[in-house]
Amino acid sequence: MSRLIVVSNRVAPITEGEPTAGGLAAGVMDALRQKGGRWFGWSGNVVPDMVTPPLPVVEQRSGPISLYTTDLNQRDYDAYYKGFSNATLWPVFHYQTDLAHFDWAEFEGYRRVNRHFADSLQALMAPQDVVWVHDYHLLCLAEALRAQGARNRIGLFLHIPFPAPAVLMNIPAHAELMAAMCHYDLIGFQTESDRLAFADYVLREMGGEALPGGVLAVGGHAIRTGVYPIGVHVDMLRQEAAAAADSAQVQALRASLGGRALIMSVDRLDYSKGLPQRFTAYERFLADNPGWHRKVEFTQIAVPSRSDVHAYQEIRRELEGEAGRINGRFAELDWTPLRYLNRSFARRDLMPLYAAAQVGLVTPLRDGMNLVAKEFVAAQDPADPGVLVLSRFAGAARELDAALLINPHDEAGTAAALERALSMRLEERRERHAAMMAVMRHNSLERWRDRFECDLRNPASLEHGASAA
Ligand code: ADP
Ligand code: G6P
């Protein structure tokens, strides 16, 4: 029997109902819950440096999922997670090279942790198993597994954007990184433009050759590439939204709104999400539309993330100042135009909040997909749905083109889209919502998982173009 072994840095808490941190963990957990499998990753704990690898692997079971986790020591955490993953790869892959720094010692630490992961995995893998690796923390994992002699089929799905070669080349170790990535059998991307950016580098900088079916031949390897937009469980999310529509939390929200329209945003507190631009676009909307004063409120839920990385501390400080300034400018004794909450909600509590909103405002500067956009749409009542205002730079915009698409750098354009969304007639709202639901039902989470797993197990299915997105 060939099992599926999933590997990612972040794993979801195994107890149901607990908040999951970000799109990867939420998506993988939902995908595995149905079919089961082994999932290996970081426990989230950091131990002192005197504890040296190999660190023990702890097993937990929840239904069909076996979760295996390991700690990181401080030195590895600093170089691999806080350093190269989140202060080099994350900003560069999101085109924010101004926020990136690079240090060869951190890159070496990143490779070291990829090797530790490979060491631990050896004990969990049989030769016939297939290995599905997730995201930018583990770009060098296939190389490390191959160095240990693993001949399994190994695939990588990148949840975040892949940058154009000129941007990638800001990372001094770009050649080492790309050579390592070429040890994967299959690499999946969220959008075709991410896939093309990767292919562009392989063809131009590595002398690779493009073969039919998304296959790239380079240095004696054949890497298959494909586009697999991650989805959500549409019906499950709608049920969660409807089931808690009258919860104490939603009633409290309704009472506090007193009939005002609600604009809602939910994000990890990350500079890629475009929060300062979103706040100023809302300010512009208020300035341009005095008729909406007292009739609307904007609630931003932003859960702190990667708080020990410098750029994240800066953005948090900036937003606190901005929220205070905007409220100071427009608030009345009985009206707070912007509510800013730094906390997380369990997803089943979040869904009815989305459903209570007239507008979902999702405006990242860059985003691999953005699951919040899809969750917002899925949570709406089809008979009287809210409107999604979505950045064209989110991967989700490729599928959700029935949203009001905006450029987050265009303050006036975003402000105008807010006005349009708040005033939109029922018929148009229904039409747009139905169009988005149809795409989301087609590109479901099950389809994402099944297509990737099928292409990883059967290389021929990609060669014959059987699973084009
Ligand atoms: P990213 O993966 O970059 O965080 P996504 O929008 O793709 O962005 O995924 C975010 C996931 O995390 C979604 O499933 C969303 O519901 C969840 N999430 C984001 N912010 C919060 C929050 N403040 N509270 C609870 N869940 C959140
Ligand atoms: C994004 C990334 C994930 C990451 C998540 C939360 O979704 O694509 O890989 O797990 O953010 O970030 P964190 O650093 O807390 O794992």
UniProtKB/TrEMBL annotation:
Q: Which domain of life is it from?
A: Bacteria
Q: Please give the InterPro entries that the UniProt record associates with this protein.
A: Glyco_trans_20, Trehalose_OtsA
> Where does this protein act, in terms of pathway?
Glycan biosynthesis; trehalose biosynthesis
Per UniProt, the keywords (alphabetical) are: Glycosyltransferase, Transferase
As for family, the record states: Belongs to the glycosyltransferase 20 family.
Q: What does this protein do?
A: Probably involved in the osmoprotection via the biosynthesis of trehalose. Catalyzes the transfer of glucose from UDP-alpha-D-glucose (UDP-Glc) to D-glucose 6-phosphate (Glc-6-P) to form trehalose-6-phosphate. Acts with retention of the anomeric configuration of the UDP-sugar donor.
Spell out the subunit comment. Homotetramer.
Task: Return the protein name.
Answer: Trehalose-6-phosphate synthase
